[in-house]
Amino acid sequence: MGEMEELRKxxxxxxxQITAAxxxxxxxxxxxxxAGITAVGRVQxxxxxxxxGHLAKIYAMHWGADSTLCVSAxxxxxxxxxxxxxxxxxxxxxxxxxxxxxxxxxxxxxLVACGGLDNMCSIYNLKGKDGNVKVMRELAAHTGYLSCCRxxxxxxxxxxxxDCTCVLWxxxxxxxxxxxxxHLGDCMSLAVSPDFKxxxxxxxxxxxxxxxxxxxxxxxxxxxxxxxxNAIGFFPNGNAVITGSDDATCKLYDLRADQELNTYQDSSIxxxxxxxxxxxxxxxxxxxxxxxxxxxxxTLKSERVGVLAGHDNRVSxxxxxxxxxxxxxGSWDSFLKIWN
Amino acid sequence: MHNxxxxxxxxxxxxxxRIEASIERIKVSKASSDxxxxxxxxxxxxxxxxxxxxxxxxxxxxxxxTVL
Lengths: 340, 68
Prior knowledge:
Number of helices of chain A: 2
Largest sheet of chain B: none
Order of helices and strands of chain B: HHH
Keywords (chain B): Cell membrane, Lipoprotein, Membrane, Methylation, Prenylation, Transducer
Number of helices of chain B: 3
Shape of chain A: globular
Distance between the termini of chain B: 86 Å
GO molecular function, one term (chain B): G-protein beta-subunit binding
Oligomer: heterodimer
Number of strands of chain B: 0
Helix content of chain A: under 10%
Main location (chain B): membrane
Strand content of chain B: under 5%
Largest sheet of chain A: 4 strands, antiparallel
Order of helices and strands of chain A: HHEEEEEEEEEEEEEEEEEEEEEEEEEEEE
Structural class of chain A: mainly beta
Shape of chain B: elongated
Number of strands of chain A: 28
Structural class of chain B: mainly alpha
Radius of gyration of chain A: 20 Å
Family (chain B): Belongs to the G protein gamma family.
Strand order of the largest sheet of chain A: 1-28-27-26
Protein name (chain B): Guanine nucleotide-binding protein subunit gamma
């Protein structure tokens, strides 16, 4: 009894210390600091391509590193690799389980991965000798659904799960290298830092956590959201994190100041954020919402500068290609759209 | 058993909070100016921000015009 009470008191004291330390460095706000810079002006993007072929809700998409190919996952039980410029389907991969929630493209372009209610992350080799795309590995150990996955390389992938953990896998042996435990709710999304040393996770405990991949440790925890975090991404310089939540807001947290710097919200927006992606300079934040739209935010001035309206159902996923030339949205209406 | 696991969980929570409390923090003014500088330096290479000329847009259909 005595130890439990001591631990409880120490935890409260440490939380107060963290709050005080964050306040000590709060000599201004990002909005004040950015008051003098030129506003972005209206951003109007047009649909350039519509990728048609899925027969059910699209749950995830991810650009390949070449900024041309992308992979999408739908609950019609297919992964499709698209050439976004010609709109041709390069691969249509039938899945064992149609309850897919996430997909990822390896930076090399050789592999794609997906997973969902089967609790597994399945790795597919796109460059097999006989030209057929086959399952290369099934990574099974999570005790909850697979919400997100991202490749570090052809040999390592990180997954997030409804079992409240994230896992770093060795793809060749199919085993867990590291388990990242600490979230108190389903992990919904993850993103890897540009230098591949860290990753961030967003969860249903309303927090985002920064993890050191090699030290296998949670370094920082960010609070503030009032509901589940569904989407997460790094600001392009790796020094800040952007989250999107069911509380209808996105937030920007700076890693080195260890605190929230901006909230992107509007009283007219009352539905959850499903997905997000920054533009390559970091100045624009594109976020998909349950109300079928994408809102474009000026990350520095916290103003809404554009809307992408074109889907007939929830926007479930969004991605900006690595050369920054295009944004791809995927929707429950079964279509993907390429905008710029 | 039940008590032991609650204490173990509380110890882990305190251990994690010690790690998070001990990090070095920079001032928000510096964090802000670094973010602003990054945006400024990369703005010209951000096609979604700057716009893309039709001739340089691989996604824009180049349809020939027909005079009827």
